[in-house]
Amino acid sequence: MNKALILVVEDDRPIRNLIITTLKTHDYKYLAAENGSSAILEASSHNPDIVLLDLGLPDLEGVEVIKKIRTWSNMPIIVISARSEEALDAGADDYITKPFSVEELLARIRVTQRRLAITQTGDQLETSIFENGELKIDYTAGCTYLKGEELHLTPIEYKLL
Questions:
Q1: How far apart are CA 157 and CA 161, in angstroms?
Q2: What string of pLDDT tens digits covers the 161 residues of the chain?
Q3: C-alpha angle with apex 45: 43 to 50, nearest 5 degrees?
């Protein structure tokens, strides 16, 4: 799988450095922005494959960044924040709550890449889906649903399930 270009939007330098180091270590291409205005500029000029976005930015709320990007693009946005519910309603595709593990971050990126690959090729791949009552596990997408709602599991929880 080709490595994606990922835009990291995080104003907290130690967290931004952790994310960037993780991406470098796993051979991802990346861009970085410290605030919402820079994030919108980078997203519009470089059209990254995935955006990793913190909600608490110094100039714009992350939710506003999502809304602005959604006016012209459907690029996947993964929010990394303690406040995630409002981001999903604003148009984010996924979220990771802080504090987060590097393994979970990488897993969310891989899942998003798989979804992108399916969308970009237009192929209807055979999916391996397990259903038991109101529980549904889509092994191809790496997603789990209960009563139609997606469950956001940690990597350990997913493995146990």
A1: 6
A2: 457 899 999 999 999 999 999 999 999 999 999 999 999 999 999 999 999 999 999 999 999 999 999 999 989 999 998 775 677 888 888 889 888 999 999 999 999 998 888 776 655 445 577 888 888 887 766 788 888 888 887 777 777 77
A3: 30
